[in-house]
Design brief:
The protein contains twelve helices and eight strands. The strands form two sheets. A four-stranded parallel sheet has the order 2-1-3-4, sandwiched between helices. About 55% of the residues lie in helices and about 15% in strands. Helix 6 crosses helix 7. It is α/β, with parallel strands linked by helices.
Length: about 220
Amino acid sequence: MNKTIGVIAGTPVDTQMGVDFLLSKGIKAIGFQTANSPKEQHQLQLLHKDKLYDIVVQIILEAKETGIDKFFVYCNSLSAAVDMDKVSEDTDAFIVTPFTAYHAIAKDYSKLLVLAANGQSCAKIETILMETNNDIKMWSISSAPLVEEIESRNTEKDIFQKLAIGKILYWAEDNGVDGIILGCTHFPYISDILLDNTTIPIIDPAEMMLERLLG
């Protein structure tokens, strides 16, 4: 792909994560953030959705003036807070979000644990999974503190110990969970230590988003 892709996310950190992901695949990308911190992002997404919608639309319209017409929304909670289908219609832009992946994921798993940044994201992901697989069993955990720890660039080991993530993994194994969804684009930051401490598959929607982007 020769064209530049616009990456839209919540904070500078996850925006750069999205840019870095596409660059690692040989795709040119430029980032656009909707907030300056996790706290500001959280408040916009939960309390000021109309304002957030306008911010996203403005980002896309200004980016389109530079020739960018495809956008990679590297943020689950942003995708849950803003109707991206409506944004696409209003701006005539091609938009890929993490939710693109969940219909496919639901077909392959029977018991899923969703880790997300807030309850709004959990609810949206659960809805999509259930729409595809009525028999699926789901547990969801939202953790804004995990986002904040990652934003602070603390080590995987320190985060794992401080937030007692090992206990979550033990609980998931005891309940027969067969997949853990990283329902926040910050969370691949700790994927290695998750993989080292459980045999449960860790599911990152980013690769499926990429397929949609290139498809």
